[in-house]
Amino acid sequence: MPHVFPNVFPTRHEMTIAEIVALTRAEPRQDAPLDRCIANIAPLDAAQASDITFLDNQKYLGELASTRAGACLLAPRFAAAAPARLAVLVTAEPYRAFVAVARALFPGSLRPSSLFGVSGRAEGAHVHPTARLEAGVTADPMVVIGPGAEVGAGTVIAAGAIIGPGVAVGRDCSIGAGATLLHALIGDRVIIHPGARIGQDGFGFLPSRNGHVKIPQNRRVIIQDDVEIGANVTIDRGSTRDTVIGEGTKIDNLVQIAHNVTIGRHCLIAGQVGISGSARLGDFVMLGGKVGIADHVTIGNGASLGAQSGVMTDVPAGARWLGSPAQPVRDFM
Question: Which residue in the list 128, 193, 212, 259 is annotated as catalytic?
Fold first, then answer.
């Protein structure tokens, strides 16, 4: 028997295949039962009658014949191989369509929510009298919001999170449990996962024979709209200029971003990346896991760096580099 995977988030509502077709613009096979209800998502080998699955990789074609899914999104090249009993929805991008259905079925999984099930300010949340919270802010127990802080409507702050003095958080944001936000300006619809540390000291010391002299870190962290920041990410505040995370950028867990760094719009940064002080990333840059970037390096728009690349020099726009020290892919190979 295939495994049945329990969901940690409830389904908002079931969707008919007709609704899925309308959402994804997939082409149903002629015999597809458009009134069938779909309540869950699953891989091909585990899917049951109320599940939707997908296929866009030749490697899993053998599982198509035996799947028990209620519906399957698949690429045109696989349509002929689908068994007659299967409700087939043909689309050029099956996984993109599958994600769209998953988002519609499980909207609660897309951002951290209240861990206490509250709406509004819970008993046990500590909000300074000079803080300003717009209507519709949710603050769990043990939340601390400091003097002069501002939080926009629709923002959810989970248990134990700290919003420091003077921090501004925009509307419809999600701040995960135990996150700390200091010396920061946060845009709208920003998602910050549990344990993130934003706005603490940058690592700045002036070496001398008598020890290392601490350099003041006097600037802020600015996070623009629609950014997502993973669990236990650290983003240091600037020393001579603000640390900036551009609109739409997505940052994985366990990433370190140092002081004065500027990251452009819609970048993708995988886990365990380290970006040293005053580095600059353009728009749509992609960094694989464990990439290390030296200080004052510039990464051009659309550049892509493979996992574990060690970057010690500027990278041109659109380049694909690998290795340590990093170099163009063709040279690396």
Answer: 259
